[in-house]
Amino acid sequence: MEDRTTEQSSRYDHLESMSTRELLRAINTEDRTVPAAVARAIPQIEKLVDGIVERVSRGGRVFYIGAGTSGRLGVVDASEIPPTYGVRDVFIGLMAGGDRAIRDAVEGAEDSLTGGWEDMLPFSPGPDDVLVGIAASGTTPYVIGAIETARSQGLLTGCITCNENSPVAAVAEIPIVVVVGPEFVTGSTRMKAGTAQKLVLNMISTSSMIRLGHVRGSKMVDMQLTNHKLVDRGTRMIMEETGIEDYDYARSLLLQHGSVREAVASLQSKTYMA
How many helices (H) and strands (E) does the chain have? Predict the structure, then answer.
């Protein structure tokens, strides 16, 4: 592979001599380039989302795998799906070194070509599933090996990487390549590369959940009612959707039925029956 963009020297130097304001402005200048890089990858993101929707519609799941920052971003995105959309065990985040590695680096875990697929095996992956490998460098053996095996087993495979002509892009069926250029701190891919990966993951999971029917209008009608803020949000959603003006009544309906969708459906059913 040619010289990796993610490892190229920063466009800035003598960072230790900069003032706090200069540092912040320079970081912000670099960060502003990320959305444009993501936009160029939309055609590939679209292909992956359409593939996810097709497979999840028939009972499949989406596995995110990665190491380090990339793995943590996948775990975070997957963990947000149940409370946001009320869907469990559809998006599954795995990372080299397991849950312990979310907080502490696990030495050598990402260097195993077989480790990624071995971590997937307890979930009995099959042809209706999707594997999305996340690797800023595009060279992580844990991710590359898992994609190769998954593809041979009939899974749809995609990847998110920030280097062109990378090994991970070569093995994935749908490579998403977001080239954000050298990092502000040379090689620190938790910065622009991590931001790009986070944006792409947001787009993948959010678009998939919308396409699969978990959003109505612009509202998260299947969100879990896990705290007072979300109960209040759901109550106001019911009021807006149905025209109910009594907050306490709307809240009681929400708590009775467990979701905005079911509460609204119950009211619509009563109206129809009347």
Answer: 11, 5
